[in-house]
Write a structure and sequence with these properties.
single chain, alpha/beta, Rossmann fold, two-stranded antiparallel ribbon, about 40% helix, globular, binds nicotinamide-adenine-dinucleotide
Length: about 260
Amino acid sequence: MNIDFTGQVAVVTGSGTGIGYAAAELFARCGAAVVVNGRRPQVTQEAADKIAALGAKVIAVAADVSTIEGAGRLIDETVKAFGGIDVLVNNAAIFATADFVESPYHEWRRVLDVNLDSAIHCSRAAARVMIAQGRGGRIVNVSSIHSYRAERGASHYDLAKGAMDQLTRALALELGPHNILVNSVAPGFVDTPMSIVNGKNELESEWFITNYVQQRRIPLARASQPAEIAQPIVWLASRLNTYVNGHVLVADGGLSVTF
Ligand SMILES: NC(=O)c1ccc[n+]([C@@H]2O[C@H](COP(=O)([O-])OP(=O)(O)OC[C@H]3O[C@@H](n4cnc5c(N)ncnc54)[C@H](O)[C@@H]3O)[C@@H](O)[C@H]2O)c1
């Protein structure tokens, strides 16, 4: 089964690193023209350069997609460079811990702005273009198993991811008539820069190794690599997916099937 994106344009937010980069690279390998996005111009450009070296059409757009202006500019520059947009992957996010009662509201709110509002702003801007083009489209939201499980000190992140999956269902309903299919991929533990919390890689911590590897709370006894999450993202975004709409695909190695 070959996934062919020739002639299609894919935008991946937060794709300078991690899962976003892996998805952008896989879209490019499948023939798409790709838009790499991130906040940091140098990281974003370097990621785009790596993808260009594969022989793909690619541009880098440094923009903060948590703002309406940044999201709008990302979609505008995509259309200017490639003439349209077929796929949007809402992947950009930050992780932080914040005590619900004591943390300053702006710190708490920032996680919602980046992790949820970015998907709202980018989806609205991209859907306008997709509807006007009249050739359908695909939106994939990268949520998390935090969308239905809560972690102490991460109420903002849990809320953002839960709302993101509900956004997926709502947009599947609203955009379906335009043949724009909207789905989520909800990863478990993934080996990316986001796993480094307070300078330490939590996937190397005793807590992770004891619980999730040795006691096999993850049946596969390991975290995933970003490329393993890119695979379902790219399939859901492809024209091979003609009928999966409003679905949350959990990619957690089986972590959430038991207590
Ligand atoms: N790593 C995990 O264990 C894990 C688990 C479940 C879900 N996720 C989700 O996967 C997605 C990708 O995360 P990752 O693990 O690859 O981590 P990552 O930190 O490598 O990727 C996130 C990217 O988003 C970018 N970004 C942050 N704020 C931005 C903004 N305002 N505008 C544009 N770009 C911005 C960052 O610069 C970074 O490149 C996120 O949505 C994350 O919540 C990750």
